[in-house]
Every structure is written in structure tokens, then in C-alpha cells.
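User: Sequence recovery, please. Input:
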């Protein structure tokens, strides 16, 4: 179906989740504008496409956001300072991106009267809870400034909806993995980091005992959830989850098997800001968005390893002969 009238602004569109979302939006016939300051994203992540426009700019600057919001009907807000550790080390800087930047986007979206704003929240808003699986109405007890910032964004979105009628949905992504997540970046998720070490035949590093568990969602499913939420009349917050979790030790076992690298893990001290167990409840996701993840962990890992090997080959082939 062609949707030429719908013009979507994707903030953070040159990043990991953003670039997959942009690809899907283009495939579905949308016109897309990306606003990204390229602090952690890459232009290489984006295709050359006649319906895609790139604007280099910063969500902390209201003029950039105002310009990017011109003529758009929908907004997918993903740009953020995404490292939990950095938010602990420098909470003020983190808040300028994740609270003030997000507020700029929400305010300009309200001014532009967009049909729908979808923004990235996070499972980090829950913090440590013994009420698993985590339902959207659970008490929020973030363990990091990052989790608190995402929770504040949700409160602002609710307020702007009642003050200005801005329809919005905050998606609480659980742990996202897939191609284009840079394993060497300090922001990388655990799957990218484990895989990078195993493919390099180096021992993977685990913080703590490895019994902490996570709910891993493939990035292709996240992109589908983003597009579904943009088109849905529903407003509020919603988990994007598989509803299943796995410990890091079990995850490592899968990856060892798939990479045929059986090196033991090196354990480092656990981090205070690390959540012990994380597993989302998928009921609202299903009821509100009729959404079910399509990728099992096994399928997603196989796809990721295939992609990783292809990009390693491309990197080696592109090297000068005497490098
Ligand atoms: N990856 C995960 O597991 C996960 C889980 C929960 C929530 N999220 C959220 O999803 C969103 C996307 O995360 P991601 O994993 O794709 O990260 P990413 O770092 O790959 O993407 C973020 C993008 O935002 C851009 N950016 C950062 N600050 C900016 C600013 N001030 N102005 C303009 N652009 C800016 C970066 O250059 C990057 O391209 C973030 O809001 C993140 O908090 C991610």
C-alpha cells in the first residue's frame, strides 16, 4: 500500500534501531526525514533513496527540531544518549539529551500538530522488580539516570497529550539486538559484545555471575512495532517484548554453539546499575497493537552472525594490501 501523504520524521534515524525503522518505513511507501547529529549513528547505515532526506542536527537545539518538523505528519523519536553507564557518570549531560532533547521534540511535534508521536522509552524504567513479567502498570524504580530520564519522558508525553492533544505512544523496548549494533561502542548491548569477542576468538566478559536474565528482542521486530505504533490510534506506554527471558550464561552457551568457539567467560564485578532480571509482559502489545514478535532468539542470532561474518569479510576485502 502506498502512503505518499505520510511524511515521517525519525530522530536518531542514522543509529541502530533508527536505520532499521527507516528502511521499513521506506519499504512501506512513507516519505522519511532523518534528524541525527551522528554522535553515535552513521550515514552508511542509511540507504540512498528518493524518499529519504537526511538533516544533520541536534535534538537539544530547538531550531534544528523546528526545521526538521516542517511538513511532517508523524514523528518517531529515537535520538538519545543511550548508555546507562554514561548516564551514571555524567547525569547532567545525559539529561540534556534524554529529557530536554526529548521535550524539544515533543513540544515541536505538538506545535506542528503531528498525527502521532512514537518515542523510545525503555525497560530501564522498571528497575529491579520482583513482579515478573513486567507489566506497564508496575511501579517504576529506575536504577540509573537513564531509566529515570525515560520515565520522565513518559510523564511529559502524558502531560503534553492533555495540554495540547498530542497523541503519543512510548514504547518500552526490552534488550534489542541485531545487525548494525556497533560491538566496540561503549553503548553496545551484551549480544553484540559477546559475539564480537567469540568471533575474534577472545574470551567473552560477563559482569557478575551471569545468572542475570534479559528479554532479547530482534531489531526487525522493534522496527515493525515502531511502524505499527505510528499508525495506531492508541496512546500511552507499551512494552515491546518477547515475554521470554534467558540468563547471560544460557545466552553465551547458544552463541558458543553457533560460533563454534567454546572459550570460557571472564567474570568482572557486577555493576550497581545493572538490573538483575528483566522480562516483559506482552499482553498489552498484543491487545493494543495486535503485535507479536516474528523472530525467535535462535533465528535472530543466526541472522546476526551471518551479517557479522559478511561485514568482517567486506572489511578485510576493503583493506589496502600492505595495511
Ligand atoms: N538498543 C537497545 O537495546 C534499546 C533498549 C531500550 C531503549 N532504547 C532506545 O532506543 C533508541 C535508539 O537506540 P539505539 O540502540 O538505536 O541507539 P543508537 O545510538 O544506535 O541511536 C541513537 C541515534 O541518536 C543519535 N543522537 C544521539 N544524540 C543525539 C542528539 N542530541 N541529537 C540528534 N541525534 C542524536 C545518534 O547519533 C544515533 O544515531 C534510544 O532512544 C534508546 O534509548 C534502545
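Assistant: Recovered sequence (323 residues):
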Amino acid at each position: 500500500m502506498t502512503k505518499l501523504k505520510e511524511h515521517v520524521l525519525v530522530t536518531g534515524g542514522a543509529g541502530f534501531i533508527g536505520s532499521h525503522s527507516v528502511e521499513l518505513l521506506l519499504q512501506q511507501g512513507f516519505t522519511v526525514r532523518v534528524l541525527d547529529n551522528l554522535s553515535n549513528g552513521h550515514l552508511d547505515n542509511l540507504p540512498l533513496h528518493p524518499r529519504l532526506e537526511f538533516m544533520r542536527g541536534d535534538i537539544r537545539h530547538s531550531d534544528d527540531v523546528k526545521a526538521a518538523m516542517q511538513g511532517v505528519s508523524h514523528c518517531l523519536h529515537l535520538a538519545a544518549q543511550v548508555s546507562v553507564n554514561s548516564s551514571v557518570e555524567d547525569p547532567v549531560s545525559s539529561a540534556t539529551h534524554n529529557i530536554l532533547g526529548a521535550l524539544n521534540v515533543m513540544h515541536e511535534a505538538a506545535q506542528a500538530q503531528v498525527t502521532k508521536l512514537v518515542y523510545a522509552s525503555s525497560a530501564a524504567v522498571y528497575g529491579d522488580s520482583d513482579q515478573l513479567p513486567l507489566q506497564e502498570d508496575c511501579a517504576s524504580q529506575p536504577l540509573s539516570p537513564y531509566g529515570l530520564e525515560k520515565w520522565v519522558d513518559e510523564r511529559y508525553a502524558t502531560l503534553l497529550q492533555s495540554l495540547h492533544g498530542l497523541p503519543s505512544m512510548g514504547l518500552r523496548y526490552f534488550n534489542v539486538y541485531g545487525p548494525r549494533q556497533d560491538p566496540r561502542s561503549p553503548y553496545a548491548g551484551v549480544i553484540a559484545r559477546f559475539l564480537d569477542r567469540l568471533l575474534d576468538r577472545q574470551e567473552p566478559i560477563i559482569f557478575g555471575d551471569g545468572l542475570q536474565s534479559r528479554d532479547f528482542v530482534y531489531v526487525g521486530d522493534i522496527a515493525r512495532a515502531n511502524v505499527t505504533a505510528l499508525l495506531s490510534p492508541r496512546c500511552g506506554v507499551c512494552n515491546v517484548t518477547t515475554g521470554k527471558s534467558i540468563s547471560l550464561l544460557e545466552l553465551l552457551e547458544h552463541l558458543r554453539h553457533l560460533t563454534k568457539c567454546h572459550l570460557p567467560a571472564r567474570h568482572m564485578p557486577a555493576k550497581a546499575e545493572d538490573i538483575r532480571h528483566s522480562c516483559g509482559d506482552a499482553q498489552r502489545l498484543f491487545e493494543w497493537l495486535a503485535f507479536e514478535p516474528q523472530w525467535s532468539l535462535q533465528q535472530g542470532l543466526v541472522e546476526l552472525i551471518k551479517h557479522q561474518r559478511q561485514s568482517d569479510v567486506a572489511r578485510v576485502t576493503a583493506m589496502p594490501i600492505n595495511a
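Residues 297-318 form the longest helix (22 residues).
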